């Protein structure tokens, strides 16, 4: 890509290794999520439709509700030992959980024990994925300068989308051709281990190394307790991070339920349609990789938010007037294409957090936003849509919209203040020089 021609060899290597690792990590993570309509029937007891919906919500949420714990664990490692160690450990844990699931007996064979083991595996996957993406984003944010770093970090989101899309493609192939799904989890484990081995060649980020040096302590001492974190920045980032999981859930999960209940779609058909939606998602992230190099990322987020808000506010109306599966596909695709999230401006937000506390706070905020939003969306919509119909989605989406725009305005204000400070500094430097010339 021409946008990365300004990078040196080590930076290009970092972009390549981290992008491949993120792809592998999200392939393994999303494999179960997108095959849940099939695998939940194998690992959980069969019940009535309402209880089945709650069990499906539980299986989905277990990946995310323990992420804050993973964020604290891997965040501490990232701020205590370094970014490099974290991105190696996370992909190894993902691989091990895939090995367990590939060899796990079904509910029919060992009963409720199967449900608990698969739940634990999903928890481990969710926790490791938490350290993976944040660690990779921080690494590139700290080794590459703007504007190339905007595109480099956006490329990680693109890689995660490809990983999700690949898992859907495999899930679709498995269900349509009747292949053994266990083999796929085994393959996922092997390629994840290869990705972990490749990351050994990465170097620690200069920002982290310099922060450790300035703190005047050895490489493996405790993070500096004197570093201050602005909680307004945390709240703003949390508010913005809640938008993407809502868009994801409504597009893939909720619309999947609509296809099943209103159009009698089988699990195989739902997986196939979601795969088409994932192609739209991949195309979107690729567009922003290139666009963020030319257009300031916060401007991109503004446009995305306006269009996304219009689509989501009209979401209940369109759900009530769906006539066929093509209409559902168009609705899913429009939500995903314009989904407002932090990408491609994540590196802008991250710089407003202290280096030696950056990993812990950012990853915890990211994890908490996913856990809260997915739990509220998955369980809340079971009851809200039951009593209020499609209009119940607005009870969840409206507060999320408000939080996102307030968070975006907060960071815009910080950016404007920083630009004003730079201009004043440059002016002060010019005045003495002009005086000497006079």
Radius of gyration: 22 Å
Biggest sheet record: none
* Secondary-structure-derived class: mainly alpha
What percent of the residues sit in helical stretches (DSSP H or I)? over 70%
| Mean pLDDT reading | 82
Number of domain modules: 1
Overall geometric form: globular
What is the count of β-strands? 0
CATH fourth-tier homologous superfamily: MFS general substrate transporter like domains
How many individual helices?
Answer: 19
Uncertain residue ranges = 218-225
CATH T-level topology: Growth Hormone, Chain: A
How would you summarize what this structure contains?
The protein has 438 residues and is an all-alpha fold. The chain has helices at residues 9-34, 36-43, 49-65, 67-80, 83-102, 107-110, 112-143, 148-177, 181-198, 206-215, 231-241, 243-263, 267-294, 297-313, 315-320, 325-337, 346-350, 355-388, 393-437.
Summary tags:
438 residues; 19 helices
List the helices and strands and how they pair.
Elements: H1 9-34, H2 36-43, H3 49-65, H4 67-80, H5 83-102, H6 107-110, H7 112-143, H8 148-177, H9 181-198, H10 206-215, H11 231-241, H12 243-263, H13 267-294, H14 297-313, H15 315-320, H16 325-337, H17 346-350, H18 355-388, H19 393-437
Helix pairs in contact: 1-5, 1-7, 1-8, 1-9, 3-7, 3-18, 4-5, 4-7, 4-18, 5-7, 5-9, 7-8, 7-18, 8-13, 11-18, 11-19, 12-13, 12-16, 12-18, 13-16, 14-19
